[in-house]
Amino acid sequence: MNNSYGHQFRITTFGESHGKAIGVVIDGCPAGIDFDEEFIQNELLRRKPGQSRITTQRDEKDEFQVLSGVFEGKTTGTPISLVIFNQDQRSKDYSHIADRYRPSHADYTYTEKYGVRDYRGGGRSSARETAARVAAGALAKLFLRQHGIEISAYVSQVGGLKLDKPYTELDLSKTEDNIVRCPDAEMAKEMEEFIDSVRKDRDTVGGVVNAVIKGAPAGLGEPVFDRLHAELGKAMLSINAAKGFEYGSGFEGVSMRGSEHNDAFYTENGEVKTRTNYSGGIQGGISNGQDIYFRVAFKPVATIMKDQESLNEAGESITVSGKGRHDPCVVPRAVPIVEGMAALVLADFLLRNRCSKA
Amino acid sequence: MNNSYGHQFRITTFGESHGKAIGVVIDGCPAGIDFDEEFIQNELLRRKPGQSRITTQRDEKDEFQVLSGVFEGKTTGTPISLVIFNQDQRSKDYSHIADRYRPSHADYTYTEKYGVRDYRGGGRSSARETAARVAAGALAKLFLRQHGIEISAYVSQVGGLKLDKPYTELDLSKTEDNIVRCPDAEMAKEMEEFIDSVRKDRDTVGGVVNAVIKGAPAGLGEPVFDRLHAELGKAMLSINAAKGFEYGSGFEGVSMRGSEHNDAFYTENGEVKTRTNYSGGIQGGISNGQDIYFRVAFKPVATIMKDQESLNEAGESITVSGKGRHDPCVVPRAVPIVEGMAALVLADFLLRNRCSKA
Amino acid sequence: MNNSYGHQFRITTFGESHGKAIGVVIDGCPAGIDFDEEFIQNELLRRKPGQSRITTQRDEKDEFQVLSGVFEGKTTGTPISLVIFNQDQRSKDYSHIADRYRPSHADYTYTEKYGVRDYRGGGRSSARETAARVAAGALAKLFLRQHGIEISAYVSQVGGLKLDKPYTELDLSKTEDNIVRCPDAEMAKEMEEFIDSVRKDRDTVGGVVNAVIKGAPAGLGEPVFDRLHAELGKAMLSINAAKGFEYGSGFEGVSMRGSEHNDAFYTENGEVKTRTNYSGGIQGGISNGQDIYFRVAFKPVATIMKDQESLNEAGESITVSGKGRHDPCVVPRAVPIVEGMAALVLADFLLRNRCSKA
Amino acid sequence: MNNSYGHQFRITTFGESHGKAIGVVIDGCPAGIDFDEEFIQNELLRRKPGQSRITTQRDEKDEFQVLSGVFEGKTTGTPISLVIFNQDQRSKDYSHIADRYRPSHADYTYTEKYGVRDYRGGGRSSARETAARVAAGALAKLFLRQHGIEISAYVSQVGGLKLDKPYTELDLSKTEDNIVRCPDAEMAKEMEEFIDSVRKDRDTVGGVVNAVIKGAPAGLGEPVFDRLHAELGKAMLSINAAKGFEYGSGFEGVSMRGSEHNDAFYTENGEVKTRTNYSGGIQGGISNGQDIYFRVAFKPVATIMKDQESLNEAGESITVSGKGRHDPCVVPRAVPIVEGMAALVLADFLLRNRCSKA
User: Fold this and answer.
1) Which UniProt keywords apply (chains A, B, C, D) (predicted)?
2) What is the domain extent for residue B82?
């Protein structure tokens, strides 16, 4: 469906940037999970705007309410509805774009598709919708944790600044130590300064988020369309501003030879392992028990504080003026979204896999 | 579902590499499409093994039969079942791998997931399954053609050989002029020679397929999870050996500034256009009427003719010996698969979009 | 999914009887429908408890809030979230049943399925959930109205009191004239008195709701599983306390001969009609343009004010004491629920049918 | 989807009455089930036309082929494709109805919906499609048998002849002892004679099939839309000629009082049981471990050997002449279809229930 994701662990998000509320209904979450409100709230804070000087200054508390599905601190198996009421409904700020198509936004495409659009702050196409995903993803993380699965994402590139180390050489516990969410302190500093300069230019820049999933058992993912990496890809590409996805050896792997790329099997203490992991933990679309890792490219977001050529609904040439607040680089805030979406994918496959054997 | 793809125009594929048959059921194909059998057969021939010296020599005629859903040359709105009976059932060739896990194949993961596996030729995980997709995709193409939408894919990279021209500078009508399916004759020749050398090494190499969709109207794609590019990504990543997907500016776009990346709107003869197309024809997950383009990375396939270290089902170290036939580079044959899957995605969204307005 | 209904016009309900709120997310509602809040509120009032002396005296205002998906009075094509906050959270009333299985309630089955249950007022299994359906169904009605489709339900039986007239001999505009919602004033009076006597007995009684759909075009419904009547049946049987469904000639039709039961086609003013309508407006699972009509049986609800033999969670024999408030006969309040669910079925098929032709 | 049923254990049927073949793809069948071909073939023979003098004399062998998903006698977890090639393709028999709408058939509604129709033998709307369901249902039965669940259906009514005994007073092992499939020998004889007389009248008559499911564990079914009885209802109503469904106390239960209808819980040898079973083994939409039982009404089928008033595609009055072969009463053949569909519903919920707890 349009606004639903997942098959067994299924979420439906709703809400517009400047409407009354945004939220999510989680249907199919198993009963008996400890519903750790503080953890979920904390995940939301990681995504929240206004965390640091390098993100948008929009002021949202992003406090969520539980409307259903939790009883005496545990999930009950019935749908869990989480809602965040919008605080910052400065609708008048947006009247100047009511009939204007901002370049590379969804204004034009929504209007073409639906005939109408909620133009306040991008309406449904606003990245605000991802708060609902992060809340649902946090619950998925709690479920995965019970099964020993942990997901860590981090920023590996901002503009041309690229951290050229594999995750195996990084200390991912340091990701949250800086506002860029890059586990390499030195690179983080460079990135931070760069984002700051872009912000002062009233411009934006893109970046890359890497993610690693540890502890996933073999057997997750389904042939042939719902391959684990295909669903991860879809989930990641569904995040605002995402432009690309690769897992394991990715685009670089195309230059390798099969004899080099194949991951030899061996056993260590009775456990099946692979000597290399160009497969990214996924073979034939199904997890093989090794680390799963992937990368997501994000474009520079479209909201800039500069004047731009465009059209209004009447098809007349206009100038869209940059004003208000903007997010010079979204990738630091994309980190919890990437983790949350990955958690949703894994939770779904963990449940689906319960049906693979008679 | 596991073996189904699509929401309204929905396909379910079935069949194993060396079972009795492979096939597809297409449910939700509208009534009244001219069922051009010759066109569909021709698409299958483009994917078929043994087309040229640079592909596997497995000999399959890939002739399909229509079991249902077509009457007097037209689709009837009921499910269309297409079946290809397997000719080449040399099951004994595979006895030597019955209890062995080939590196970077799906042998191990299927066994972990299901407890059993059809080991003949990779069973369900064989790329043979993609013939069913190509047949269904050909039908989707016929539907799209009625709506003026055309899809063209081509090989842009083989190993390290990369065609560094945008599609706008290529003559895509020349793609089928050579066995590599690269529209640049000179580069095609280099690629062909390179693949030949890899084949002689009994090894494999990866590559990249690019695709362009022309004529898609604005409005295709759904917020927020089923974005057009997210579904394209999933569809492409579900093809065997795919490792990455990017659209529009893709991974390179991350280094750009927003002021540079934003695609300014203007009108030409009353039609809305964009001056650049870094968006890849998709904004907010919905097509904007410009060309849609994307790239898919394929790894070197795992079947090589060399001995490799591995394990058997008992967890003992073994050597998997390369023997039989192999495909040194799958990307030329991936071209019709990429096109077919893209056609399925577009057909599905074309139908879904009929429900967007009251 | 568990808590979702519909394919294109798809709803997901959430909420427990005595939790914070109940609600519904409607995904796939087309853009451009006039969102008549008053009409929706009025439908909710028709279902609300405490309307008259013959229903439960639970006091709920059932005022709904729109959280998303509506802008400037129109639906926008994005998910519409409607929420009703619960007023009447008298949780302590339910402490006496916390570990007890009430006979013929869902207490035992939920506990077996989920390991836990929200025992307050039946939690998710409470008929309170149907308020969310009525709200969503009201929106579906608004959509159907634009296409000239109207749905009317009424009470045709209460206990042994049965109105033995076909709908064609009734004036359905009189249904709301009495608190039983039976369009025959005389029968209504008898039913009302009977329900009153059952109430005084601290007991309950069942009944039958009939429904008629006028104005549905030919072509709605899908072969072969999603037949129009099969979906209507599922939708009706999913209402609390429903025990049976029949359409057209129904159970009585089994005694007829084919020569008698077949509905002869003829034309009237160029319109195709049938001389009889034993088919109930549906042939081969697809609407034929004639009136669609069906009947739904409801059992006497399980909450009675009498002591009953039962078990507690420890498996010990106990007595469940009747206390508090009860609903002697739910069928009058079932009328708007039947209509709402029928509207959801029709709206879904109306959209799906847009994809039947190329 | 249109031609798919089930969520986890999901089938898609295809094929027309007089096309090349009919068949089914079963996706989501767990790996490791013994694929008992003989059992499946035998179930098909129970449904097959021409079994006795009281069914249609159409001659179909109904021998099925397995195209995929089974290896070394076991299901592999991949899609199982079963195909029955049509023997009896007497297309010319149907030329006389090519442009005519037979009363109470799907001719008119398919034409309205799709613009075209395969008129040969009713095409997709033919009851022949149910052979595919019976084959899939037989596999579901094999799966259920591993879990101790057995389904028995039988004929309880033909025309006005009604067997007025509850299933608990019948010996269901005698159902297959006579051609009517009524376990009461005396009633069976009456029914048989009655059907014979109807056949001689060149007419048809309806009937009722009852079914009982024994051994289903508590916990099957999902709140709130996918209740066990709602899905059973949909599945049954999707069978050709079905007009009504009721479970447990059904339509008769509406006249009861709650104090009478409530099923008191008690324990016997530590097992939870109910003293009565008006609930039909389902409470709150979820199985409670008691017997599940229900009834399905079938109308007299529309194909009769008499002349009837109707219209052609041009809207002109015509006479449809009865000729060829006809099925005077389909209910005996409906017995294996009812069982098969019930098996599919149960198998699906058995798998879905694996996801209810963390």
Assistant:
1) Amino-acid biosynthesis, Aromatic amino acid biosynthesis, FAD, Flavoprotein, FMN, Lyase, NADP
2) 4-355
